Amino acid sequence: MxxxxxxxxxxxxxxxxxxxxxxxxxIWGERRVVARMQSRLGPNRVGPLxxxxxxxxxxxxxxxxxxxxxxxxxxxxxxxxLVGVVAGLLSTAVIPIGGEVTLGGETFTLQVAxxxxxxxxxxxxxxxxxxxxxxxxxxxSSPYPLLGGVRSSAQMISYEIAQGLAVASVFxxxxxxxxxxxxxxxxxxxxxxxxxxxxxIPLLPAFAVFVVGxxxxxxxxxxxxxxxxxxxxxxxxxxxxxxxxGMFMLAxxxxxxxxxxxxxxxxxxxxxxxxxxxxxxxxxxxxxxxxTLKTLLFIFLFILLRGALPRTRYDRLMALGWxxxxxxxxxxxxxxAALVLVxxxxxxxxxxxxxxxxxxVVVAVLGLATxxxxxxxxxxxxxxxxxxxxxxxxxxxxPDPAEVAR
Amino acid sequence: xxxxxxxxxxAGIALGAAVAVVAMRNLVHAALMLVIHxxxxxxxxxxxxxxxxxxxxxxxxxxxxxVLFLFVIxxxxxxxxxxxxxxxxxxxxxxxxxxxxxxxxxxxxxxxPYTGEASVCGSDVAPTGTEQSCAGIAPxxxxxxxxxxxxxxxxxxxxxxxxxxxxxVLLTVATIGAVVLARRRDLSPxxxxxxxxxxxx
Lengths: 406, 201
Known about the structure:
The complex is a heterodimer. Chain A is mainly α. Chain A has one domain (5-405). In chain A, 65% of the residues lie in helices and 2% in strands. Chain A has 14 helices and two strands. Chain A has helices at residues 5-37, 53-63, 76-91, 118-139, 143-174, 179-185, 204-217, 229-232, 242-267, 280-308, 314-344, 350-372, 379-387, 401-405; strands spanning 100-103, 106-109. Chain B has three domains: 1-85, Four Helix Bundle (Hemerythrin (Met), subunit A); 88-136, no CATH class; 137-187. Chain B is built from eight helices and no strands. The mean pLDDT of chain B is 79. The interface between A and B is medium-sized, with 34 and 27 residues.
C-alpha cells in the first residue's frame, strides 16, 4: 500500500501491456492453429510466421470507416463497446502476473492491487461485462442483435453462478478472498508428497466447473451462441463496424486471456514454480515465466475447443449450466466446507481423506447418471429458447472473425 | 478530507441517479440509471471501509439483478417511450401520500435514532429511548480479517439470524408468487399434460 506512485503506475502499465500482448498472441495463435486444424495455412505474410498480422489488423480497424446506423439508440450504442473493454481491463488488476522484482531500489509486486476481496472483484467485473454485450444488442434496434444480446446475458448470468460456486470452494479451502493468500496457500506440497499443492487436485470438481464455466463466460466456441453467425448474422455486434467492432473483438479475446489467467491463479498455483537455483535476476523473472506458460496452456485449450467442437444448441447449453454445473459446484462447496471443518477439528488421515473423496466422486457420478434422465431443458433454457428459438448445429470450419471483418 | 469529498461525490451521484430512475421515460434508461445508483452506493460502502459489501453490491445488484430487470424489459418489448401516460389526479395524490408515509417511517426508524447526539462517535452522551450509541467501524477494522468478511458472516449468523431467515423466507415467497402469477390458467384440458414450457410459447 505504501508504494510510491510511479511504482504503482509502472506496475499497472506493465500488467496492461502484458495482457494486451498475450491477447495479441492468442489471436495470432488461434488463427494459425485453427488454420492448421482445417488444412489451411493461416496468416503467414506479415512478420515471422505471420506474427505481426494482429498488429496490422488492429491498425486497419483504426482507419476503417465507423458506420453508425441511423436507427441506433444513442448514447448507449457508443458506450456499450467501451464498457466491455474497461471491465476487462479492470479485472486484470487483481491478477498477479509474477513475483517480486527489485528494480531501481524499489520492489515491484507484479500485481496492481491485492484487494481483500480480490477474486470477488474479478467476478464483479465479469458481471459488469455482461452489460456491454447486452446493451450493444439492445441499442442496435435490430432483431438479430437483440436476440444475441438476450441470449448472451442469460448465458453469462447462468454460468456466473456456476463459476461463483466453484470459486466459493477455493475461498473456503484457502480461508481467504485475497488473491495473494490463495496463491500462497497453493505453494508447497499437496495431499501426496511430490505433487504440487495446487487447488486443482483437492478441488477437482470445482476446477472442472470453473473451466467449463470460463468457456461460456468468455462466449467462446462451442458456447458462442451470442454471435452464432449461422442464425443470428453476427449477434450483438452485427451493426458495429470499424474501431467499435474492434473493441468488441478485443474484449472477447481479452476475456479468454483473463479467464485463463484466473483459472491458473485460483487452481494451478498462479506464478509459483521452481526456479532451478538460477541466479537472482533470472530467478526473479521465473514466476512470470511460469505464469505465462500455464496461461498459454489454457489459451491453447480454448483454441483447440474452438477448432474441434461444433456449437451447442441453446437449451443444451442452459441445461448443462443449470442441471450439471451448478449442482456440482454447490455440492462441492458444501463438501469443501465439511472437509475444512474436519481439518480444523484435528483432521483425518490422508487415506481416509482420499477414500472419502473417491466415495464422493462415486456418489456424484451415480447421482448424475440417474438424475440426468430427462431430455427436457432447464426451465430457464426453455423459457428463453421459446423466444430465441432456432439453433442449428453450426459448421466448425467457419472463417475466423478477424477475416470476416475484412 | 478525501473521505468527505468521496462521500459528497458518491452521494450526489446516487441521489441524482435515483431521481433519474423515476423521472426517465424510457424503461431501459431508468434501469441503467439504477445501475449507476447502485454503483454509487457501492462507492459509499467503500468509504465506510467495507470492501466486501461494496463488491457484493456490484456483483449481485448491478451485475445480476438489474441485468434480469433489463432482460425482462427487453423480452417483453416494453422499452417504448409511450408507456408512461399521465395519471389521474387521484393516482398522484395517492403516490404523494404513500411517499410521505414512507419518508416518515424511514425518518422515525433511522434518522432519529442514528442522528442524535449519542450516535456521534466519541461523545459521552448516554443514549436515551430509541437512540443508538455509536458503533463505529472500529470493531470491523479490529477484526483480524480481510475486508470484514468473517466479521459480517459472524454477525449475520448470530445476532441477525432472525432477519437473515426472514429475508430468506421472503425471497422464497416472492419466487413462488411469481411462478403462481405467471402460470396460465386458460389451458384447454388436452393441453394440461404438456410440460409448462411448451405452452408458454
